[in-house]
Batch of 2 targets.
Target 1
Amino acid sequence: MAIRLSSDQADFEPRFSALLAGKREVSEDVDLIVRDILDDVRARGDAAVVDYTNRFDRVSVTGFEQLTVRQDEIDAAIGQVPAETLDALRFARDRIHAHHARQMPKDDRYTDPIGVELGSRWTAIEAVGLYVPGGLASYPSSVLMNAVPALVAGVERIAMVVPSPDGVLNPLVLAAAKVAGITEIYRIGGAQAIAALAYGTQSLAPVSKIVGPGNAFVAAAKRRVFGTVGIDMIAGPSEILVVADAENDPDWLAADLLAQAEHDPVAQSILITDDVGLARAVEEAVDRQLRTLPRGEVAGASWRDFGAVILVASLEEALPLVNRIAPEHLELAVADPEALLAGVRNAGAVFLGRYTPEAIGDYVGGSNHVLPTARSARFSSGLSVLDFVKRTSILKCSAETLRALGPAAIALGEAEGLGGHARSVAIRLNL
Amino acid sequence: MAIRLSSDQADFEPRFSALLAGKREVSEDVDLIVRDILDDVRARGDAAVVDYTNRFDRVSVTGFEQLTVRQDEIDAAIGQVPAETLDALRFARDRIHAHHARQMPKDDRYTDPIGVELGSRWTAIEAVGLYVPGGLASYPSSVLMNAVPALVAGVERIAMVVPSPDGVLNPLVLAAAKVAGITEIYRIGGAQAIAALAYGTQSLAPVSKIVGPGNAFVAAAKRRVFGTVGIDMIAGPSEILVVADAENDPDWLAADLLAQAEHDPVAQSILITDDVGLARAVEEAVDRQLRTLPRGEVAGASWRDFGAVILVASLEEALPLVNRIAPEHLELAVADPEALLAGVRNAGAVFLGRYTPEAIGDYVGGSNHVLPTARSARFSSGLSVLDFVKRTSILKCSAETLRALGPAAIALGEAEGLGGHARSVAIRLNL
């Protein structure tokens, strides 16, 4: 049973604040272990990666070449995947590609009123590492969501790593890699894979940025190599916030809440509504659907421990709560979702109306499903083409425009006690 | 004396690689100290900030209210600043504003061929913390470079922190804050200031993102609070790479190399040229200019320990070296800089031609001087308006378009073992 809050309760504010502040992740302290693994891979390269892979993934490889996934293995994996699934992967890939192609930023060169030439030029990152988890959270859709924006950006090399615990590799993940066009794949994971990507080894050339989700070891390793390479966000457990008016089918909303909850016992599903009847009907529908959900145990634990139903006097009253929660996923299952959207400031992705279940965005909507969790939509965005390009500033003065800008630069250089800065301008102006 | 390399040396590649791999920063291990400070400020708030400020900044304040910079103090600071400097700050602000206004990303709403509505909507981060170092590296230009893009983005609240070691606050920094329009300023610094901004205290409301440079304690604290808030890059020592042909005044180039070197004994200045005569002449000019440079001791140490002069057979041969160095600042002091620019892939900012000394970009060019250091231009960009906005994805299906997308989503949900995902789509389609 999820918690129930109502905005007319006297203690609503402290209870809502507690909901916001609630920690859902157990933060394992793996940082020192990770540090040692990173140092070791940096020092010994291939051999260290082989050692850790044998130990942590319970396999017995004797050389790094056995950790490279061969083309015939990829082809064999494709053979194991039903045609319908392959078609769905290709459909998803094409829709993701079409949406992300619109995100490519444009170069800008211009001459300002003084005559100074300025500009911003975008170029793709040359090499990117893509981490794909092994085991249960090994999702082919995530391969597409990470790889396609990189390819749209123009990244030439994508090195994918995916662990094979006990030697098992999910064929769907290899199929998704094939559909995306990834050809460089290693069956390695954990901090040792992050180290290999960041520092390079004898057999694996280093990349410039690492993206993709992972467990506590992967997250700690990404945090540590940040600076040597770029990283994407450190993703937390998934979450959804559904804002609903009375005119909803409670079963539809219950299905949406449970679709999030089934990810993880620490996932979070929250319903905000202005109708107490709907609130109770959704709670009942959740209980009913849990009985037949394949991952009912996981979803039930998430709903019980972290689910919440919040009653508000009006939908407008929901908006400040939405913006404080800053949800990863926000469904606006209301009559006029556009009106409500105008007041939404902090959300990773918004799903408008009654016919846009969040799962559409997970797979085939076209927008990215790698989104900011744990309130980080207050300051960050979902994965996009922008994560795979970088901008170079361009500045060009002539003798004349330097004469126009120079005196102010000299004044500021001198004010800051940086005489060399001032001199580098003055010397060109005979000042 | 800087090191000399020549691309025709047999051992050029290992020597160049060593130059790239060279660590310039002493990485102080302050992480555990920082962790304790963060925890303490989180637990005790104002009182902890007061305690650490008294201890580390050698002051004696009794309450947090004394750490707030009052309007009359800001006005008094302005009174100490020469009119010429204030004019230069305003000139710089206006130019930075004009350039950054072009960076504001545009919203995108569209309907795809199937009829699905998609979109990307940009909104400003609500509250940003701006860290300004105290002491020698307390630069008013950095206040403008960090604050103006935030204001252009539409950030409503900027909370600036700047330590006052021994009670001393640089009036220029307060003047720059005033010129930028910043009104919320605290005289605090170090990890305690980062903690106060990230977690909030009784007197200081938390922000959503923290930007600005700082010492090892500040960098470690930013790394730790990353996730709770957003952070900008972790900046390393500054660097310049000058690519020059024979037709240069050696004194101009020497001045540019020293303008970078004077920042810090671990700053780095590198010259690449195809003309040995110019190389030797620049080396001589550096030695000559060092004698009269106010910060000659700092610049001399940087040039001696980290400077480099690299001789290449042709300017085209310089390009792969440029891209491997991925310099923060790149000057192309050549006859046809645009031709060379076309081959530049990794650089924070490029300064074209003989009349664009890098110092112009530090102050009044208009582009940002907060740029990626330590080869991180391979994967990241200078500070921009994009650092102060975030994107929300928008997706909207109708009953009809859900019918078009639904089957593929259901197939992928089932393939991933996420029956709840599949159900949330199927239930709306009566499947």
Target 2
Amino acid sequence: MASTTNPLYASLSAKPSLPKPNNNSSSDLFVRVQNVNAVSLRSSFVSRTTAVELIGGGNSVLSATRMGSRSMICASSAQVVDQSPSKTDSKVPTIVEVDLGSRSYPIYIGSGLLDQPELLQRHVHGKRVLVVTNNTIAPLYLDKVVDALTRGNPNVSVDSVILPDGEKYKDMDTLMKVFDKAIESRLDRRSTFVALGGGVIGDMCGYAAASFLRGVNFIQIPTTVMAQVDSSVGGKTGINHRLGKNLIGAFYQPQCVLIDTDTLNTLPDRELASGLAEVIKYGLIRDAEFFEWQEKNLKSLLARDPSALAYAIKRSCENKAEVVSLDEKESGLRATLNLGHTFGHAIETGFGYGQWLHGEAVAAGMVMAVDLSYRLGWIDDSIVKRVHQILREAKLPTAPPETMTVEMFKSVMAVDKKVADGLLRLILLKGPLGNCVFTGEYDKKALDETLHAFCKS
Amino acid sequence: MASTTNPLYASLSAKPSLPKPNNNSSSDLFVRVQNVNAVSLRSSFVSRTTAVELIGGGNSVLSATRMGSRSMICASSAQVVDQSPSKTDSKVPTIVEVDLGSRSYPIYIGSGLLDQPELLQRHVHGKRVLVVTNNTIAPLYLDKVVDALTRGNPNVSVDSVILPDGEKYKDMDTLMKVFDKAIESRLDRRSTFVALGGGVIGDMCGYAAASFLRGVNFIQIPTTVMAQVDSSVGGKTGINHRLGKNLIGAFYQPQCVLIDTDTLNTLPDRELASGLAEVIKYGLIRDAEFFEWQEKNLKSLLARDPSALAYAIKRSCENKAEVVSLDEKESGLRATLNLGHTFGHAIETGFGYGQWLHGEAVAAGMVMAVDLSYRLGWIDDSIVKRVHQILREAKLPTAPPETMTVEMFKSVMAVDKKVADGLLRLILLKGPLGNCVFTGEYDKKALDETLHAFCKS
């Protein structure tokens, strides 16, 4: 595992050529070519992603990733910093690029990034900013964000709108408060919306930005693991309808995602675990090596070891960025990111928004998807056991709430976005760990069996 | 003027080569190369648009237009039909193509198009359709549209939602009824929304389609002149906010626009005149020849002469399609389509949505923009007189309602979408007839003078 506590970075040209070995530098770097991400080798994306790792003193210190036509180097070791005291700025971020042509953007990951005004300010368009946040996050980070937006930048004026916290407020009435504030503040097309908070804030602010004056720029500053590893990346925005989750929204990409890992210091344990459900998901659907790393490092993650969290966030973002780059509008591949979500959404909708956290519902949903995959004979029971094991260790649910019925599942799943011409398509594991399929071709009796196995009625 | 009562059409390859003269055909066609649109010669778009007109018996019968990489031939004369009785299908449409790369789509214009199921059905994706219409249009055309969608096509099921008629219902509460119906009807991502009605229905249905499940296909069937010449083309969708018009929405393109000119038979006179305001706008901002044609043919338009209306619709759509193709997201050129709209929106918002029709407010707004252009010394008084003359003849207002105050104009104009970093940019006429500018660089005193000239307080 690469340590990411004290990262530094530099830009490479877009050429696919690799940096040459450099044995004369003070840190004795040498070059080792390898794949950043195990899944790249397995999948058909090998040709899109090449990577270089520069090794210093036996530890991984620099890695260069090329995705599409963009290149970057991310450095991640205390060792380099120890040897170069003039570069001990602990706040230089790791960067993961989401490659979407003209709509590409960087994800900055690191400690203390909110203390670096230039990072945010380079992505602010126009002179007016609206920060959208909630009443839990505002007292903790709003002043810091306003300072980061305005320090040394007197031309920019910042307004904010503070929404009530919670999934149950991810609705049209609450969204209208954002529009009201934007219009009252006379924001124009050159304004920038900033989402400061978890997934609910990011989704609502993003959809508001997509719709206000038919589209203004926006920036994501996610403050939960859930938002940092999943919802802030990839441009899915929207709100819930009383009959289903995220049924109203837009695909709309941010200018950048800024992940200051220090914001996790204030995150409740239950929220932390909820976010880990999505981290575990990446391992199951496409990155077995990452899943194995999680099995070994789950205690460190739960204990909030900063380098473990930073690595889990970075690797999750790399997985998500690659999938989104290949399938922005979810014509196929991207749907695989929804392992467990169809069952999970049914739990959230049927059980009431906000009763369970999203990741808790997804965890139970993943167990159900894994159960179905096993019933279909697509995976062996060792995977079933490992999924139960890691979720239990993360203190996540491994079954839906007792009040859920088969009928509740069926009625919500019928309006799932992955239904096409009446057929419900699901993400199911198939083959060795790290492989999945998105399909409507499965035995519907097996689905019934799974639902009955997890519901009393 | 080309007659368009009995059009026929054929597709050309995308090559820029012109069809060869054909003097041997039964209808004695020959080729005349000319510009479809006078503005193409004047403007910088000449290289993008070439046209061929095939003349039969002295009357214009066929014209081929190339826009970008797409080509088509539109035929428009009773004479050809008279000479080829086997082709007397009066329902073959004129086609204007909106060239937006992968999001390109055709505008079909003609009489009796709703009696041709294949036209609509080729653009329906998936098996489920939701027709969005209002309580004025539903009794007149809903059955006809449902029949056109389903005849010979038993796999398709059609639901409909009937909204109250009027601009004052173009709001979030009414939009939610569309989502409610779509979800209750279990529509999925492969569904198609169909907007059947005027501009309000088209804008709301389009925004609902853009947002439902983050985007489903939609089709525009505009039934007013206003919607046929302007709002149904170009992908601007949205709803009003109590503080301003169209402040919430999306750029979202339809699969096709189907204009059955027969639907104008049921249009009230006041609505007809309102639509003509936008027709007149195209002449003023970019098509002096079209404006001159309107001056000569206004009586025919008001008398609903079918061929005059069809020509006005076709030429308006050509103008709009060209502008939208060049500037889909309104970074500059497209804004010129809003001549008079900043003043007009202020009238609609200040005076109350639905008191005046959109085109009535735009007409008064155009007079104010022309007044300001004249005060700035940018146009001569002959243009001012001609604008007053044609609007009066169309029975459109040439001044805002008496209750409008300078302050009402200023407060609404301050939240106009064309404000950028606090500066209000306006579309103003400049130079000979058919030329305009979109600019924030004008004497603000002159704007004050215009507002005071048209308001009592």
